[in-house]
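Summary for the steering committee. The consortium agreed at its last meeting that each partner would contribute one worked example illustrating the joint modelling workflow. Our contribution is presented below. We chose a case with several input lines so that the handling of multiple components could be demonstrated. No manual editing was applied between input and output; the record is shown as generated.
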Amino acid sequence: MNKFFVRSSLLVLSLLLVVQLSGCWSRREINQLGFVGAIAIDAIEDSDLLEVTVQLIRPEALSSGAGGGSSDSGSKERIWLVSAKGATVSDAISELNTISGDFLFVGQLTSVIIGEEAAKRGVKKLLDVFDRLPQLRRTIWITVTKSKAKTILETTPSLAGVPSLTIEGLFRYRGENSLAYPSNLNNMLIALSSRSTSPVAARLTVVSSEAGEGENSQEIKLEGSGVFKGDQLVGWFDGSETRGLLWITGKAKHTTLTIAKLDELEEKQKYVSFYILTASKKIHTELKDQKLSIKIKITCQCTLIEQTGSRDMLTRELKLDRETIDAFESAIASQIKEETWAALLKARQYQTDVFGIGERFYIEHPQQFKEIQKDWPQLLADADFEISAAARIRRVGLINRSINAQIQEIPGL
Amino acid sequence: MPEKGRISLGQAAIIASSFALGTGIFVLPAFEINWAREDAWLIQVLVTFPSLILVFIVDKLGRKFPGQTIIQYSETILGKYLGKVFGFAVTLFFFWTGSVILYELAAFLVSAVIPETPMMVFLIVSGLLIAYTVYNGLETIGRLHVWFIPITVFSLIFIVLLACKEMNLNYFQPFLANGIAPVIRGARTSNSYHGCMILAMAMLTPYINKPGKIRKSYIYAVIVCSLVYGINTVGCLAVFGPFEGGRVSMPTIELVKMINIADIIQRIEVLLILNWVGAVFTMSTAWFYFSVLGTAQLFNLKKYQFLVFPMILGYIGVAALNYRSYPVFVDYIDRIWAPYAAVHEFLLPAFLLLVAIIRRRGIKTDTKSQGV
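What follows is the complete predicted structure of the assembly.
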């Protein structure tokens, strides 16, 4: 009898378990979700409120438009832009819930775009919510734009059709030109909570390009960066200045440098292009009599990818042409130095340390740093810089000599 | 004796290390980095030594009083009444801390994974599971740990390796810029987490099938624990730096979220959550087991099984009612629990050994003849 009781109660229990299989407690089906792809934050003039624009993606858009959205008009329906006002970001987003029938799902958020005015008022208070929400990760991209942030999301980029996917793609292949700062949330927050470093955020701009048949399409461009002092936006770096910044911070990946060839023998201006494989930096700081001197050394390895001049690294006799190699390498080095200087001078103008030189100084002279931490931006602005750069050409592609260096030979000579 | 089961040396070592590992993996880096900044990695080197010394003390006590746990021999050493007070203090420590761990398990799941489910659901479900496991005895707990802990340890190491791409080794410099004081302050919590192992060892010693060789396996347990914590702290510090690492509540979770290798290996936090549930569940099981066993020994009961269900209710109750929110818990762990635990883990066994030597209690042991 006892055995029967145990067995029958187990049977009832297992039948009860079947009930659970029908679904989860707080499930959300994918067709009830509005995927928040990007969030644009703008300040409203003469008010403390924020205007938050959310770009929602319908799930079909994520499957690269293979379905019905083959025409351009289809892409417009795949996204939905919606704005709301609020005192905080989450306040505005909760406002959006009153007009959105879908549940706003932020787990797929790829980028946050902050308008110039909002960034000037300070980004710390804008970033807190992104740091806090458990659905988000610290790899989302924080970007700034010179215009209203909303205008970035209003574009319909040709290739992906969805601004947030385009921005994600732009950042993914940012390493190919190193013209934008990798300003993910983690990097931003590390800079914001550090001793002396100010954050940098990548800059997005809208450019128009010809889409054929006289139509212009609005494209998103990722180049340059917004420079902060503390958490407030103070100025802008253009592409090459940003690359200078990346050289100093050691974050530069690959890039193509094109140099006007410095050869007085050639009558026409000739160009050489190099592709940077790796770059590294060394920073050394010293403080003497309240005068800071900073030595920055940048070394890089590169590939010769294109040249239009008549001199190459090998002569016709397959002899190494040291002079040319030295000219090439020093040309790259001086280009790097130039970009680095441009970034340093611009930052000096804004009196901000976006390079992390303060952190380096702290590593080298921790006790001294504690005394001068308050005056650091001033000290850095008055500092003496000594920048040296060295480049090595490691690869030349699959030819020994360029076709431009080839002279037609007289047979038998 | 209430427990009839016997476990192997390896199982004992794994239970002991799990006694500290589970939640420590997730919450400790934040405490360490918050206080010690660039030198957080040093903490795990420092805290190994007190634990190693205590392994010798506990081992010595175990040899002097074979077949007895710390609850029982504290009575032999200090006499009936004072001994009972000591035993009660240790049991209460197990019970209290175990319920903290149960709270942590539920708090994490509620705040990070399934926010809409009431915390009580997790507390009751995992509480009942713990009760069932403990009801089945030490051998079951031993096997459970042998399953879960290696998975936890290896996946943690795997996660730190995957996050290598995001690391910046400059965050380890400068070395001891603010002196040793912040490091020692940061080591407080970590030290108490480590010390938990010592008490687990003192409770487990009589149930090991080869009691002669326990010291070696306990030393391994301490070192493995330090290594795992150390790898974790180094990983979190290298990715988040000296300030961010101390600001987030669970840096390990953030570390997993950062992982993105070629867009293929990404969003793998599910792995870690699985891990978390496993590790913290086994940890809480061990703590609850010792509190039940301790109670049974305190009152000289023949069986402990009938205590399980009444006590799990108290266990769940304390976990549910004691902490209003996660910040309350953080404050409690860092300021109150750490010294509270240190008293039980370090002073108490040392005091017992001292009294035992002065009062000449227990068997005279010669460490050399028994081998290490």
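Confidence is low (pLDDT under 50) at residues 368-372 of chain B. Chain B touches chain A through 25 residues (CB under 8 Å).
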